[in-house]
Amino acid sequence: MHSILKTSLAALVAAGVATTASADGHGLSGELRIISDMSNPAPRAVMEKLAADFDAMHDDLTVDLTIVDREAWKTQIRNALGANPPDVVNWYAATRMTPYVDAGLFMDISDLWEDPAMEGLASTKGAMTLDGKQWGVPYTYYQWGVYYRKDIFEELGLAEPATWEEELANCQVIIDSGRKCYTIGSKFLWTAGGWFDYINSRTNGYDFHIQLANGEVEWTDDRVRQTFANWRQLIDMGAFIDDHQSYSWQEAMPFMVDGEATAYLMGNFSVAAFRDGGLTDDQLDFYQFPTINPDVAPAEDAPTDTFHIASGAQNVDAAKAFLLYVTSPEVQSEINGGDALGQLPVNAAASVSDDKFIQEGFEMLSNNASGGIMQFFDRDFPAEMASVGMEGLQEFMVFPDNLDDILARLEEARQRIYQ
Amino acid sequence: MSSATTNGARAERGWYKRNEIAITPWLFLAPAMLFFAVYVIIPIGQSFWISFHQWDGLGEATWVGTANYERLLGIGEQNMDRKFEVSFWNNLKWLVLYLLAIPMGLFISLFLNQTVTGIRLYKSLFFFPFVISQVVVGLVFSWFYLPNNGLFDQIVGLVGIDIKGGMLGNPNTATYGIIAAGLWPQTAYCMILYLTGLNAVDPEQVEAARLDGAKGRKMLWYVILPQLKPATFIAFVVTIIGALRSFDLISVMTNGGPFGSTRVLSFFMFEESLSEFGFRMGYGAAIAVVLFFIMLFFIVYFLWSMYQDEKGGR
């Protein structure tokens, strides 16, 4: 059935979504209920179009789409999956799936991953795998890295740093010019998690980072301390803006737009906000986080957003067909385009938007992330460890002298959480 | 229905008619009792039950006995949960400092208790902060406290005080900053309670006191305040309850931060069990039970003192 589905789907998409004459052949009928967290304006339009197109392709099928606020969904998903669950829901990859997989609320869709149409998604399979099975499909991902003010770098005669020494030297020049090297808003903690991901994986390598995430390494380990020592070099020289614990990531943005800080370690979603803030592509540029330890291969943060089928889904056939539809190369090219999500497609056969930052990110993740792909601190670490951990990271950034106390606390939490 | 009425008519008096006096109050109480049981009493019992389990809110719950309480209070070899310690002390700070709303409300109400043109407008303006949502109050104050650009920072900057990290970014000042924000609407609430109380002050007693030469502070302390006792009691009750359920302001202004220094028990409970990263229903329930007993202490006191009043009134 899947092969029929696949070929006719491909034919359909190729022929233009509107011609639905042959859609009856799939035997998809009834109602497909989707709850999505794509509530920001651009993603919302994408999701609504996806649902409408899929609906139009199948005469007997009605797609019932509910869009929930993205932040609210992080807590509402528990209730939504409990009683009378929808067929398809949005969530995040990696360890973040664990509570729902363990509770049997996500459907095992390993069979779907054996479909030949899924070959293009092989690179993301690991992030969707827990206990040797696949629990959902990705639909978009984006790179992290350093977004910086190119015009200020040129004014100061700086080049993109490739090594930690260059990074520190650059930063000294920036500070001497009366600016800060990095803006950051750590009020909601996760931004500090990004810094830890990068410094730790650059210092100790991807494998060590994942071992730490899995609770196999002590937080008081000397290698972890080395990570913090490297981080502290930046903190001690005053590289970060003051009072960052009072700002959200958006509130920290004006510092860079106004030129008081020159760079921001962020996800690619920040580009839209920079452009809204008035920075042109001549002023804004991107570089990969510099190498710290030359012996480890670079790993990159590239969080993946996903679709899952609820284990209590009523219309499993339609749900699976929808996941195949979303991940097909044509749809992937379309929804990740510069005028839609503006992110990276998960299907290798899809085309990448020609936006400068998406291209750079794609290039970096394809050719220069041999260490591995991290999902992000709060998705790789179990929920509780992430929450305790990020709080400690924020405290470290404000009071680096408290490090021993922080690490002891995190170690205590590790021993309790992973037992 | 029809057979019932014929039966009733045949019997001398129906069963309901015979017991009407005894039953009717219960009939009227029944809906309230039912909902109170379903939404208050039973959930309290469930909280106790859950607090003896380890449960992520999704799968199966495992019985762990009092392990959650031992961890929370640090019984046995482990230390007391530091988050709990911080939350508990913050709750105490809230309880004590929030009571400032009562004298402040009294002062404003005395000030506003006069007849000049437009006094109603002034009263409503003073009452305004209580009408707007706590979330809005929180947002306004967090802008007020912003480091560098915030009005507060500039004012204290004039007298040479520089709070490192801003009022809400500094773990030593953040809780006080939030309490000050909470006092704004709470003072308005106490003010309105006292204003209504002042309306009921007996003018004859004031007159008599004046003839005896009482003035100013003495008049307030010995004549006015005793008559405001009911208003003071209510103000005390709502302020204590307001302090214990301080959640929205913390959530909006600091989200428990910086580094968890502004948590209170209710926020801690939410964070552990219901927030984005919270999957410890059992632990959250244990915190809820502790909070419940703290509240119970006050509730018993209130009930007891109301009972004493009733007895005295009879």
What's this entry about, in short?
With about 425 residues, chain A is an alpha/beta fold.
Number of helices of chain A: 18
Assign a percent range to the helix content of chain A. 40-55%
The major β-sheet of chain B equals: 2 strands, antiparallel
Domains of chain A, number: 2
Q: If classified by CATH, what would the architecture of the largest domain in chain A be?
A: 3-Layer(aba) Sandwich
- What separation lies between the terminal Cα atoms of chain A? 44 Å
The fraction of residues assigned to DSSP E strands of chain A is: 5-15%
Helix-strand pattern of chain B: HHHEEHHHHHHHHHHHHH
Mean pLDDT of chain A: 89
Number of helices of chain B: 16
**Helix/strand/pairing category of chain B:** mainly alpha
Uncertain parts of chain A: 9-25
The CATH level-2 architecture of the domain at 82-279 in chain B is identified as: Orthogonal Bundle
Major sheet summary line of chain A: 5 strands, mixed
Please state how the strands of the largest beta sheet of chain B are arranged side by side: 1-2
Which band does the percent of strand residues of chain B land in?
Answer: under 5%
Rounded to the nearest angstrom, the radius of gyration of chain A is: 22 Å
Task: Write the CATH homologous superfamily of the domain at 82-279 in chain B.
Answer: MetI-like
Strand tally of chain B is: 2
CATH domain topology of the domain at 82-279 in chain B: MetI-like fold
> Which of globular, elongated, flat, extended, rod-shaped describes the shape of chain A?
globular
